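Neutral ceramidase, Capra hircus. Tokens?
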Amino acid sequence: MAKRTFSSFEIFLIFLLVMMTGITVALLSLLFITSGTIENHTGVPSTQSPPATQGSAAPQNSTPSRAPTTTQVSPTPSTPKTTLFQNFSGYHIADCTGQVSDINLMGFSKTGQYARGILTRLYSRAFILAEPDGSDRVVFVSIDIGMVSQRLRLEVLSRLQNKYGSLYRRDNVILSGTHTHSGPAGYFQYTTFVIASEGFSNRTFEYMVAGIVKSIEIAHTNMKPGKIFINKGTVDGAQINRSPTSYLWNPQSERARYSSNTDKEMVLLKMVDLNGEELGLISWFAIHPVSMRNTNHLVNSDNVGYASYLFEQEKNKGYLPGEGPYVAAFASSNLGDVSPNVLGPHCTNTGESCENNISHVILFQASMCVAMGPGQDMFESTQIIGRKIYDKAKELYESASQEVTGPLASAHQWVNMTDVTVWLNSTHTAKTCKPALGYSFAAGTIDGFGTLNFTQGMTEGDSFWDSLRDQVLGKPSEEIKECHKPKPVLLHTGELLKPHPWHPDIVDVQIVTLGFLAITAIPGEFTTMSGRRLRQAVREEFEAYGMLNMTVVISGLCNVYTHYITTYEEYQAQRYEAASTIYGPHTLSAYIQLFRVLAKAIATDTVANLSSGPEPPFFEQLIVSFLPEPITHQTFLTVEKYEATSATWQIIHNDASWETRFYWHKGLLGLSNATIQWHIPDTAQPGSYRIKYFGHSRKQDLLKPAVLLSFESSPSVFEVITTW
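Tokens:
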């Protein structure tokens, strides 16, 4: 290994880094009481109710709504009776936006990327499907957040149990994050994510939980008869593979079966009532919502959120965003190596195209390889990519004619992913590993690079960083280093337990089936080929036990976050996605094996015989954020038009509208400034307008506690005129 020398300036900065790291670790230890309290979340039902039997009546109830190893038996397979989905609906919205200032944005893990306002609201969109008698049902929730944390899921399930008993359970409720990188952080319990969030924010956590639960409650209340139709189609021009050299490590014979190194297929469900009234849609498509870059400070739902915005605005004419009955969820899929920045990587200092396989950042230099979106700026890029997704969804929606038929079923297990024996063939086995992050994890990607001298594709460690890690966190064991090869271990998170474990050991695996549609709930980010292999394996398992012609979709970022899942071959390349595959080179094989078990249990009607697995912990005491937790509002702004005929002001936009932007600027001595922009669309009608701002002020009297007072203000009325 070549010897590295550092300048005096670099040594000084490294010294500061060491000091800051030591202080951070000390604070983490001090801010927890003892080593933290670990409890099983007993509010979550620990027994799994039997799913719909293969000969049961058709699922008849479905409601979309929005709000901001194992033990098994093998009986003779049975063939499901063909019946029809006939009930569902969705009529309301609740928002789960949370804080829009003084909190980290979750996704890029970039220091200093705090929320400083809002571009769009974040919503929870819930869909419930139920059997005619209401006994068997499944819930799918797509949430405008970076990913679902284990703590978030456990709390949602606990509150659902408190209200509905065993109706909504761990096996029949899927929570899926859209993976926007512009939503609040701070809702995790494992130390790696707590550090990335700069603490736990109880306010944001409560907003998210309340929004998710409310969306399910509304869906539950509004159930009515209906039908589901499915359609599939190709989306062109919206994505590229951001690690194409890793993809090339997959066998050529396997790659030859596919026309692209990304999954371009969109799967869409259309929902209508028995009178044909349109109720909602769910779409799955593999794309990273990172059109908004790591320089962004406005809370928003990114490109897939813009697609939802367009579809819901079209169907909910006359309603403000988030207030109409129609629900359009654009859910995540196997997006691990998929970027929306379709112009590809370019050097930021020269503008020239750069090689994707050597994308990196050099310490203290301006040469950086970053992928570019199709627009003039990230706002325009978000709209361009979002509209491409919307356009294809609209086409598929309007032509959807294949009705989804068959019974409902669901299966779930908790699995210790650090100790899964993987059968490579009939005679050889391998094991998963305790979690660890590799060197290239710190390099970031072409969508958001790191800030130190790490590069993608590192298969050897560095003596300086190894020494620094060993002094601050302790040395990784030989066992974990050997298990993760060829990954050079940067952070041995599976061996770091203070103040709480740094990564989860216990992970959810889950499948729900709606007739011939199977939804696999993936606890992380599968790469393109990983997703293809899982879909094929699950489909083959269903077919082996009599369930033929199944459509298998991958729903990403579900239930608990475990970073990335690459193929074994991609793992050898050790780009960012492989370095972030925390359970080692056989992670994908383990998941395929586990999901096969669930598919077999559903196909053979033996879900009741599945072991529930080890229950995950719920940590009661978490480090809190040092940042203040400001008050949020239903909306921070309105744009209003004066209607002369009624002599009233009519609200035409709020802060969920794409045309508005709310910027919050923190000042000195407790003062702050708010800036509101309305980007007037061509469709705006001429007339008199005003903008209103809704905020809070702090009143502090001598020797008395501070009091927050709400206020609203509006500048002068202005005119919008037509120009030719």
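The longest helix spans residues 8-30.
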